[in-house]
Amino acid sequence: MPFLFSMLVVALMIGALIDIITRDDSQVKYLPKMVWIIIVILLPLIGSILWFAIGREYGESGIAIPRMRRAARPAQTDVRPAPAAPVDTRTTEQQIADLDREIEEWRLRQEVEKRKREDGGSPAGTETQPG
């Protein structure tokens, strides 16, 4: 009995190796062909089973694997269209001019804050004259 099992494993390994070698690279999933060959040689039983289960790309003419079908979903009645992207009708020059104005505004605001900090935070109009 162990002899028969060993012969079946060797036959499965040889079949997997032939299948891997004769397949095109586009028909091999998850790993390159060379890695699958090494796996099947090092782990004959497990490697061959893995090859036929997940590594091989089955086409329309191959073995049909039954798959669970998804349950039918109820029809969605509230279908809203995607919001339209905002359209900016300004030219590039106008956009650059707007950005320049914003930059200048921020620069002026920073200058005002800097002057307020330099004055020591005293309220305007209440400054005392030296002397």
Question: How is this structure best described in words?
Answer:
53% of the residues lie in helices and 0% in strands. With 131 residues, the chain is mainly α. Helix 1 packs antiparallel against helix 2 and helix 2 packs antiparallel against helix 3. The chain is elongated and about 100 Å long.
Topology:
Layout: H1 2-22, H2 33-42, H3 44-55, H4 92-118
Helix pairs in contact: 1-2, 1-3, 2-3
Strand element count: 0
Mean pLDDT across every amino acid position: 81
**Major β-sheet, in short?**
none
* Number of H/I helices: 4
Helix content: 40-55%
Uncertain runs:
none
Encode the helix/strand succession as letters.
HHHH
Descriptors:
53% helix; 131 residues; 4 helices; mainly alpha; single chain
Care to give the gist of this entry?
The protein has 131 residues and is mainly α.
